[in-house]
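Hi R.,

Here are the chain sequences for the assembly we discussed:
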Amino acid sequence: MTVELESTVRPARILVVDDERHIARLLEYVLRKEGYEVQIAHDGEAALAAVEHTQPDAVLLDLVLPGISGLEVLKALRSDKQRAGLTIAVLSARSFEDMPSELIEAGANFHCTKPVAPSTLLRKLVDVGVPPKLNVQAQPF
Amino acid sequence: MTMTLHHSQFALQDEAEEVGRVRLALASEVRRAINGVASRAGISVILHYDTGSEQLSGSPVTGESPEAEEPGVLKRIPAVYDGRKLGEITILDTPGASSLLPAIEYLIETAFQQFAVSRQEEALLEELSASWESLEAVYEISSDLRTIQTPNELLDRIVRRAAAIDENLSVVLWIGRDGRLEPLALFNATAPDKGLEDGLVGRSIAERKAVVLNGRAKIAASGNDVELERANGVAIAPIATRQGLLGALEVWKEGGESSFDSHTIRLIQALALQAAMVVENDRLHRASLESQRLRQEVEIGSKIQKTLLFGQPPHTAAGLEIAALTLPSQFIDGDFYDFFDHSAACLDLIVGDVMGKGIPAALLGAATKSHFLRSLSRLLASTPNGQLPPPEEIVMIAHSEVTGQMIELDSFATLCFARFDTASSRLTFVDCGHTPTIHYHSRSQTTRLLKGDNMPLGFSEGERYRQNSVSFKPGDVFLFYSDGLTEARNPQDEMFGEERLATFVRINSNLPPGELVANIRAAVVEFCGTEKFADDSTCIAVRIRPDHFESKLVITSELDNLAAVREFVRSACRDLTGGRVDPESASGLELAVNEAVTNVIRHAYSGRSDREIEIIAVGSSDRLAFSLCHTGEDFDPSAVPEPSFDGSREGGFGLFIIEQCTDEVGYTRDEQGRNCIRLVKHLKTREPQEMEFNIELSGDVAILTVPGDHLDAGNAKDFKRDVAPMIAAYKQLAFDMSNLQFVDSSGLGALLGCLRQMNSIGGELKLFGLTKPVRALIELVRMHRIFDIYNTREEALVAFGK
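And here is the predicted structure of the full complex:
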């Protein structure tokens, strides 16, 4: 007996984490327009909860957050071996230009400085393996 | 209900597409709003539009049962948005619909409002997103501005950034120049110039509006831009700055689908602005560089003039007074001059003019000078005993070095190389096509022009150069000048000319050269009526010092050099005063200077033999002065005790001797900070009157006592003239020579002249009482066989008539 595995296409899910509401809204707008599914969290705790709950394919993480910092969220996410496949991108203001190596070492997949050109962000997401539509192999039981 | 949104600020393309998109968004908004209420009640709401319809709620009422009546329309609501009719919403009159109508209407209104708000928000987000897009590009380019130096690289970067917006893009940056558009930077494109008003680009610039077109058909319909032949999408952002720079950044796509939108155009506008800034900055930079370059050239030129082209007249030159004048023209010229001070009795000077103007001529002038210096050094090094090479040799060698270069540079130089030798009172010069030198003779008060006939330097290789020479007297003036001076023109177009210049020299000949030269300057300025000249005017005035003769000796502080010092004093006494120092005084001076030098070596320099002492001798009309300059310890004459004449002490006589043998002793410091001991001997001033003779008769013989202690170049002529009547009067004449301490060749000549005169009238002339030095001279020239010479008066008297 052969089990045929269907491959389906589903929209990729992205969690946007930023305490500034309009920035989060803008990112959501840009990503939605492209075809992603977007969720928003405004602080670190909510972010961790959302990852647990909705299991996104990628997280856009702002570095400066109230409460626990973006860096701590990054480390927390990376310490979970089960989430090894999770793509995490860190966004920061221009003054953090010299942070990239530290962030990459902590486990970020890529880093952008704000304002990031939407085209740049979308391209980076595609490059890192999170296009708007993902091919998903249906898992056989 | 209508909703408005701000108008798009550019000529966008697809009305129909846009309307469709908006309609869809509205439909889903309304659908969502009425979903709960309408579906449960089974109310049918439909959005109709000209090309179709959209079921918003309820199921489409189809002909399931053909007998069932088609429901009528309960209500129609027009959906207008942004002034455009999107369609019409109809609510069908199905059972139960009318009772829910108010609710449905309310919900639809809410939906419209919500739609409007989210449309606005979306538009703003669209703006914001476009801004971020272009902002990132601006940041990138800005950081490039810091690192990239050339405008071309920057423009290339900008154009590449534009091309990165999508795949298969071509980009051209157009910049206007002289009524045409030039493609200043390109990516993936080739494009020729176009007119400032041609095509889509021209229209965009003219209307100062961006242009975005998607679709091959639209582009084809819009015009016939050459580069857009195969484009299926184009976006153009115009450039129009306040400084008047016009241009455009044009981006188009070939192959694939083009989807230029507000994002795109926003980015392209930002990049176009950057490009405009780069081009404008570059243009400003070039303009300022050019004016800076011009200013620099003038500055360099005048620096070259001051440092390389013109030399400094030496302060104390061989019995000469020198002054130089330069009147620079508005443009740097090729005039140059310099001085080579060989010794106390010899000065060379060179005055020249290189053909041409500007820095090239100035540089050639400087190079020519340096070649002369080199030839001079080389010749000096190769001639024995430091003998000076003759001017014509110097010029020949310099010529051979310089002519090759000048021929290559299509230039030539006129010059005059002149050597003043005050020991022989001769000027030797090599004139190479230069202006004639004006020579004013002080005795006759006339001017003459000195000219040679050599070719200028740089005409042909292998020219021979010949020198000429003239003698000069104290008070003579020489004027060297460049043709800029004589060819200076007045408003009536007359030239200043040589005659005027020569006359000027004659009239001002009694002035020191500095004043002469200043007056020439004033005269030229007055003549031309302006201080701005077309050519450099240069002149150098040299006056032979009427009564001031100078000589120098530099020795190391070794006692062995004392002999040379004494010789120097002897020749100074002889040469610098026209023989007005009597031998006794000369010996005394020799002694005094000897003692002073010894003191300097022993005490001021504490016996060190590696230091320097400079001895300057100056003879003028009433004195002969020796200055001993040294850098040793100060000397305090008052600290020296009087010598004891009883022989009890060995030393201590030096200072006493010095004071006895001189008329003045002074201790000063010169401008170089050296200590100077000055020893002065007063001289009798030259008496121009007739000589008075003491005549004594002894029988038929007249005894004439030769007055004064010297018979030399200074008074020999006068003596001969004044004694002639005596000779004519007394046929038997005896000269009492016992006063004479010094006779030179001129004195001898005068005596010979007397003898000849006497012989011609058949008389007798005898000499007696010659002092040792005089006798020595006469024996040296073997004149003791020609003259009748006796020791005493008695012996001479007895000899007459024998």
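The domain at 151-285 of chain B is CATH 3.30.450.40 (Beta-Lactamase). The mean pLDDT of chain B is 82.

Let me know if anything looks off.

Best,
T.
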